[in-house]
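Chain X:
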Amino acid sequence: MQEPLAFRMRPQKIEEIIGQKHLIGEGNVLRKCLAAKRIFSMIFYGPPGTGKTTLAMVLANELELPYRLFNAVTGNKKELEQIFAEARLYPGLILIVDEVHRLNKDKQDLLLPHVENGNITLIGATTSNPLHAINPAIRSRCHLFEVKALSQTDIEEALCKALQSPKGLNNEITIEEDALHIISRHSNGDIRYALNILEICAIASDGCISKALVEQFSQIPNMSMDSDGDGYYDVLSGFQKSIRGSDVDAALYYLGIMIEANDMDSIERRLLVTAYEDIGLGNPAAVARCVQAIDAAKRVGFPEGRIPLAMAIIDLCLSPKSKSAESAIDAAMSVLRHTSYKVPDYLRFTPVNMKEEDQYDYNRSDIWNQIQYLPDALKNTQFYHPQMNSSYEKVLAQNLEKLRKVKRTSNLAALKKKR
């Protein structure tokens, strides 16, 4: 049985790779590595079907180094251990890890020492943003390179090569120009998707692939990224910014792209981040409803899951916005980056050598809001500043104003004398 067209057309040499000139063009980083016969651990990130794994394999071939493929999802520890054993026999072995962001802790623990001591060179491939998805221990040992979505011109070049190549369709099939444009446009930068559509159309054609035939097999564009080919991360960014900017229609549009890509993980993470970061205390009930909507969507799956997600997005878009919680914790953490202060003695879990009258009293709720809880050096520091965009946070602000008028003290003995 013949391999799929996308597999047969996989490049073997650096000159055969289409696109990615920022990495492999003359004078650019990976081209220089090949010229110097040097390689280092790296992670390729970018949308599906852009050739991340292929690029890794081509680098290994060009450097005449042995390599092994490992899938982080389906591969097991035994396979990894076998690869590491081979690396002792074959110096310079390259380990190409597909979906590297899915490596669990056990596999990471096995992998890291071998990467660190140079026993293997790791080349990871991921469709996720490595700054969020890749374990920092792995990320710090690798250089990060973005593999970009191909342009429509790049896709059309790949399709024409596949039509002409003896490995491909060997000039046995022709294609109408309009049909070629439709495939390249609908692929949205995913060369694998484009070749798959070309192959099925070739099988169904009578020798010429027409516009009408292509439209039958590509009625829904590939939505793994946005239509201008800038990348899936731009969709995520546009999604969050649309909610933040209260543009409900734009947010629903970007949600639709992610639903078509069947990317529940990215939807879940981005929605939760947006809800807590941008809506926050402006409407905490909407934040809670968002969590419930995500849970419901995951339970029922797509396509029905689109409904609770749409409800959540409309709710978040039209809610008052407040970043006060994020600003407050960031302000507190910025203090910690400069220095740390000792917890007051009377707040410690086990106070040592303190008189009873100076100790925290668990039975005196009447004085709790008069005690100084911050270290002396930070006394009266205010990290939280309410944003008056919603009735909910206005109530919090009123309560805060009353509390901040109370003079807090570290003299617990004096406080306890009050009744």
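Chain Y:
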Amino acid sequence: MNRRAFIQNTAMASSATLLLGLGSCSPTSKGLDSIGVQLFSLPKLLDNDLEGALEMLSQMGYKEIEIYGPYPFSAAAAHERWKAVTPSLGFTGSGFFGKTAEEFGSLLKNHGLKATSGHVDLVSLQTKMPEIGKAVRTLGLDCFGISAIPGDLRASLDDYKRMADTFNAIGKNAKEEGFKFIYHNHGYGLHEMDGQIPLHIILDNTDPDLVFFEMDIYWTTAGGADPVAYLEKYKGRYKAMHLKDMKEITTFKGDGGSSDQWIELFPLMTSVGKGAMDIPAIVEAGQKSGVEHFFVEQDVVEKPKVALKESIDYLKTL
């Protein structure tokens, strides 16, 4: 596969998780005690050799993982969307990779890993909460939530206000099931819309005891925002973080709401510590803000064995 085709397929894969959505270390200023990885960074390796891929992560030093859907309990629409896009991506696995939650949890334990967070689609969170709660408790997840707001549900400020209400309802149910509901930001919602920043509507109109956030530092930066500033302003709201780096600091030409804008910036994505982002400052701000889970994520990276090792090796030096 040539580089252009790889970048396009990578963007398509990330878009798939957005359409579908689409655990705990103790912060310390002296470094990260437990470094995690979002499994969407290595889907092909997981498809080809699940145990081998997990052992590779363990040997690199990863302790936590973040999973991605769909899952056996996911809404039918999520499975249909996944089946529609995966033939062109070269992988099909997701969720528990053909195993039950119990089997998958045992497999992780055998390799010294623990699932602490995961992404699921919005409809499943609204309609499958008992099933989600059972799986979350089985695996011992701390956080579970959506990777993005579907495009048709974020076209206006009123949409964002309705989404804040939706998040509060989901967060209440999640708390009753024993986990934290998280919203992973992408690159949209950071530019003014009718005089307001859409992401602020969600942050300011959701219950801090019910709704939490997962910061993707790459897409936050691409959206023209400062990760450190958000972490300092909204202490206690961010419980998880996606770590990756940008070869040179660049922002979207538009509002970051469409896949063509994401595709344009994929070539700038690189291993943590290999780019221009101030990773030490962001990690320190995250620790002070209350982030509990730090996940390396390099969306369907072309050479995960190299990139994921580079990233964790760098993070170990902090």
